[in-house]
Amino acid sequence: MAGLLAYTKKQKRKSRMDEARAARRRARYQLRRTFLPMTTSNTDFFYRMAFDDVERRISERKNYILSCHLREGRIRNVNDFCTCSHCRPVAHIPVCYAYCCHEVENGLKGNCAHAERLIQKMSNLECITEHVSFASICLDTEVLNMLAEHPGVCPSWLGNILTFTNREYRYLAYRSFSYWIHGSESKGNRMDPPLCVLNKIVERYPFNEKISAGYPGLFTLFGSYFFEEYEEGDDMWNYIDLQHSH
Fold it and tell me: InterPro entries recorded for this chain (predicted)?
């Protein structure tokens, strides 16, 4: 009986996720048919139509690398969990991004390939951002301009590099880090970056955009490009949530 109830609960949860994904597809289709340019006056319309559901789901889900829920509000008390000395509060991030690279090593239990890849890259470093290749791969503008055309880093074209703002570079830096650590497994923007990494990215490419500056979450941090690739991560996130739903 208990097994049947657990199975029913999983099926209901999966059904809700499938419905949300279908609704987002419809919204994205409608967005493509909309000929209005995105401006400061109608950003809310675009945000609610295409991205709000994704923001909400990410804010509620587990950290994919640590495979656990992180406590709401921990971003305000970075010293409680940071041991690499490079974590700083970053605006607009979901709670699942508020973790230190060393938490992966300290909290690793069993066989977790995603956590293992980050640990292997860190080796004996105090922080992943101290890796000899981190700055050049993840922060250098010229390198990011080249990686913008790498299909593993950016499956979708981000546009002419001459038009890139700091927001595009923040997204490129995030994608470059994910691909550097996880390779093809980074597909779908499902690999949560450590807070120390996000801090370095925002230090290099600070918030200076006018459009959507008042909107919360990953839309402000990375722009719409993050959401374009989110769809590919849904099946894996559904699996993770279902595995931990009872």
Answer: P2RX7_C
